[in-house]
């Protein structure tokens, strides 16, 4: 869970997740939306993969990144449960 919150704490990583909501993208396509280096984008993608928020798959010559929506569902359940406990106390 700590990796998840670390990944979500960075504005650039949140923007990457937002871009991936619209569909799968390569690292190069993601980088077009930022004013940071491609190695910087690569590092952000690595953090997101480690937190299991995105996954990568090879398609032809390119590696595509995709949103792992099941993790978001798990986080949402956790938030709802956390909120419910707070209201009952």
Summarize the structure.
The protein is built from 5 helices and 3 strands, in the order ααβααββα. The chain has 89 residues and is α+β, with helices and mostly antiparallel strands.
How would you explain this protein's 3D organization?
63% of the residues lie in helices and 16% in strands. The protein is an alpha+beta fold and 89 residues long. Strands 1-3-2 form a 3-stranded antiparallel β-sheet. Strand 2 and strand 3 form a beta hairpin. The longest helix is centred in the last third of the chain and has 20 residues. The two termini are 24 Å apart. The mean pLDDT is 88.
Q: Unreliable runs, pLDDT <50, ≥5 residues?
A: none
Q: Give me the count of strands.
A: 3
Structural class: alpha+beta
Oligomeric grouping of the chains: single chain
Output the helix-strand order: HHEHHEEH
InterPro entries: ArsR-like_HTH (IPR011991), HTH_ArsR_DNA-bd_dom (IPR001845), HTH_MetalResp_TranReg (IPR051081), SdpR-like_repress (IPR047796), WH-like_DNA-bd_sf (IPR036388), WH_DNA-bd_sf (IPR036390)
Keywords: DNA-binding, Transcription, Transcription regulation
Pfam families: HTH_5 (PF01022)
Domain HTH arsR-type: 1-87
Index terms:
ArsR-like_HTH, WH_DNA-bd_sf, alpha+beta, 3 strands, 89 residues, three-stranded antiparallel sheet, globular, transcription regulation, DNA-binding
Layout: helices, strands, pairs:
Layout: H1 2-8, H2 11-21, E1 25-26, H3 27-31, H4 38-50, E2 54-59, E3 62-67, H5 69-88
Helix pairs in contact: 1-4
